[in-house]
Amino acid sequence: MSKNSFVLLSYFIDKKTPLYGNTPAIKISDFSNIKKNASANTSIITIHNHLGTHVDAPKHFYDNGKAISDFKINDLIFEKPLVINCFCKPGDLVNIKHLEKYEKELKKCDILLLKTGFSKYRKKRVYSTRNPGLHPVAAMWLKACFSGLKAIGLDSISVSSLCHRDLGKETHKILLEQKVKGATPILIIEDMFIPENLNEIERIFVLPLMVKGIDSIQVTVLAEIK
What is the CATH T-level fold of the domain 5-10+49-225, as seen in this structure? Predict the structure, then answer.
């Protein structure tokens, strides 16, 4: 049994969770309540599937693309993580210049975590309105040059900056496309928690809420640390 420790890379969801664009907030209501003479407490949860830490699958932008439930559990366990510091100002886009010096490491990795440092703004409005994203040219470079890359995660509310939504849509399509130069889709994990000094990662586990046929869903992301 592993003696390694684990770090949670997801956020808990509540009514204060940042909202991207017109995404509605979570709604939680009582279905039964002990204080109202029910035998147990139960709740009804209404949640948008792109709220909080979540994973985008190809079906998010392609009707015939894979749903997140089409991926096997082994597809969501990553053995060769790479964390890149690419600190961004509001509205910045991560580009090739941020990434190219890590080309050697990128050739070996299966999941790339982009630490923009923007999580420091998560309790402020700017986190939702001027978030950094990934430039489509950088997305195409990653897709074309690193066939082992299966997922990208970042500590921003979306890979699509709200300041550059058209570019963000293009980035999504490039990463999630299943047939670009014969490459497999690259899953996108948004609104992650990526702490300082996240070193010596053994593996990353991406554990989606098990809802059949949906394009994207909330995930618990765990980093196993040596």
Answer: Glucose Oxidase; domain 1 (3.50.30)
